[in-house]
Design a protein that fits this description.
Length: about 180
């Protein structure tokens, strides 16, 4: 397999996993409401013993924790995927500076998300889990953090699509044998 094809495969896996993680996050958050509305018979008996007022917050907490765990794990995985992808392009292909800059920018976005956005999202979300009345400013701050994370994901995905186009259609690049 050529190095460009391998780079396309790696990039496709990274972008595809990002889309999958976004879909999983939305499904996790909806699962608590689905389960409370339509539990199976054994679960219905257990949930009924807790009472309706305590069941839904507990289910939502479980769904939120699962989403936070997935977000944290995905953030860490992206650190390695982004680094590996950049260094693969740098040392394993003859891609030019623009392609390398795009890959580096994608990796840096992933680093920024993992080091700054994800920890803030996790801590602010956990602080609000069992509050009876969530102050508007806390809800707004968490919404801004989620928006910033989503925006960085879209930017990273857009850069990845540009890079994919370059990898697929561009010929040439820098020479690995420049000294010969």
């Amino acid at each position: 397999m050529s190095s460009r094809r391998m780079a396309c495969l790696l990039l496709g896996l990274w972008l595809g996993a990002g889309v999958l993680m976004a879909w999983v996050a939305t499904q996790d958050l909806r699962s608590a409401d689905r389960l409370a509305a339509h539990p199976n018979l054994a679960a219905a008996l257990q949930l009924k013993s807790l009472g309706a007022n305590q069941t839904l917050p507990l289910l939502r907490y479980l769904a939120a924790e699962q989403t936070r765990n997935n977000l944290e794990t995905w953030g860490t995985v992206q650190l390695f995927v982004g680094s590996f992808f950049f260094f693969f392009l740098l040392f394993g292909t003859n891609q030019g500076k623009f392609s390398l800059a795009l890959a580096l920018l994608m990796a840096l976005i992933a680093f920024g998300q993992r080091l700054f956005l994800i920890p803030e999202i996790l801590s602010r979300g956990r602080a609000m889990d069992f509050l009876a009345q969530i102050p508007v400013y806390q809800h707004t701050q968490l919404g801004v953090l989620h928006y910033a994370y989503s925006l960085t994901e879209v930017v990273k995905g857009g850069l990845g699509l540009i890079l994919a186009g370059i990898l697929i259609w561009r010929t040439g690049g820098r020479s690995l044998n420049a000294g010969q």
